[in-house]
Amino acid sequence: MTDKNDRAQILAANEAFYRAFEQKDLKAMSLLWSQGTGSICIHPGRKALCGWQQIRTTWEKIFRSTESIEIDTEIINVEIGQQIAYILLLESVLQVSRGRKFKAQSMATNIFAKMAQKWYLVHHHGSPIMK
């Protein structure tokens, strides 16, 4: 059985992930992710990054090359187990990089693992939606 607060904590962690992304805040991003080698991040159209060090490096590059970013999300489904939870959602992204605007939509899955009574992001996978 999951704790009554788990859903609220997972949704808050998910929201914090997208706010750290929008604010290009590497410190906040670091606090959300599991620092282990088992963490995985797959940006839309990219190969899998395994382990926090690779994931951190890609966030640094994204933040450095992005002037601004806005992300709207629409949660499709939330599933919560005792130690693992996932959120399936639609991401709508508006990014400005080198003075150019880019709009994109992705289906994303964020997986969280409960460690020491806190939910950490262990997997983010964004898949582009082709129109």
UniProtKB/TrEMBL annotation:
SnoaL-like domain residues: 10-130
InterPro entries xrefs: NTF2-like_dom_sf, SnoaL-like
Residues making up the signal peptide according to the UniProt record: none
Pfam family, one: SnoaL_3
Recorded coiled-coil stretches: none
Top-level taxon in the UniProt lineage: Bacteria
Protein name, per record: Nuclear transport factor 2 family protein
